[in-house]
Amino acid sequence: MNYLWLILGLAILIVGGEFLVRGAVGIAKKAKISTLVIGMTVISFGTSAPELFVSIDAAMDGNPEIAIGNVVGSNIANIALVLGLTVIIFPIAAGRNSKIIDWPMMMLATILFFLFCLDLEIQVWEGAVLFGILIIFTVLLIRNSRRSMKKKADQNKGEFDEISEVKDKVFISIGLTLIGLVGLYFGAEWLVKGAVGIAETAGMEKRVIAVTVVAFGTSVPELVTSAVAAFKKETDISVGNLIGSNIFNIMAVIGITALVKPIEVEEATVNVDLWWVTGIAAALLPMMIIGKKIGRFKGVLLFATYVIYIGILVASIKS
Fold it and tell me: How far, rounded to the nearest angstrom, does the alpha carbon of residue 26 sit from its chain's CA centroid?
């Protein structure tokens, strides 16, 4: 039965990712917001919803290892696994905003997360700080994008010409986005249900399940959405979705979860996992600024990093 949930969840995620990209780009056109900002906000929040629900449920059920491990593992997977596989499929040229605005914000979120974890507990006030910064950042991001898009309205006339025959019907775009978000939520939930069941049968401990299986399961929406966006040449959505998702994972998922209940942090998370998530986030900047694109070679390096991380984690548990 676990394998059935796994397959069904993945299938729903693929369909949901397709609808979400189509709807979100349509909304971007009507709202005069760039696709990068839509990727950083609407899609990032939607694809981070599984992490949010998983983390809150885990914290309330007395499983803080899953709440923290889910976010740490997802952020590692988003860059090393998802971006790695995406650029292997279709190399991406990172935009200027991704380099000077989005990446610094992701690093700020990651460093704050690291610092808040050092005392082995993320307290309510720390959750409030994370979530408050996210709200301010999102408001400024949307405001600046609308101003910029108004100036470039004539240049961007054909930006969305290939979306679909319903591209000018905003209510249809909203409907597609909502269907996509619902599909991603249930798809991720079913995939994680099946994956965790399989992992528990193998006798894995909670932290390992969270950082590997649960994190991978909740990162599948990002993988599907980014791959679909890459195929559609909507590379701003692909890059913005991943960076934005990492920001949302820390500032919204951890922030809101800590507001609900303080989160205990394991020493192994501070000593091992947080160094990996910080290092991988830092490594993204030179990959964006060196060369014209984040190409296939860089994708292979990212993917190899993820494989090495998982390999070291599994080996340490066995020993």
Answer: 21
Instruction: Label residue 311 exposed, middle or buried (CB < 10 Å: 0-12, 13-18, 19+).
Output: exposed
- pTM of the entire structure? 0.79
Cα 292 to Cα 52, 94, 107, 113, 131: the distances in Å are 35, 8, 22, 31, 34
- Is residue 184 within 8 Å of residue 5, measured between CB atoms? no
CA–CA gap between residue 37 and residue 244 (Å, rounded) = 9
* Domain 35-149+194-318 in this protein, CATH class: mainly alpha
Each domain of the chain, given as residue ranges in start order, spans: 35-149+194-318
Give the tokens for residue 48: 């981070």
Instruction: Kindly report, residue by residue over 47-105, the tens digit of the pLDDT.
Output: 677 777 778 877 887 878 888 988 999 999 999 999 998 888 888 888 787 888 889 99
Predicted confidence (pLDDT) per residue in 8-42, tens digit: 877 887 788 778 777 877 777 777 666 667 766 77
Closest CA to 100 of 242, 289, 246, 252: 289
CB 147 within 8 A of CB 153: no
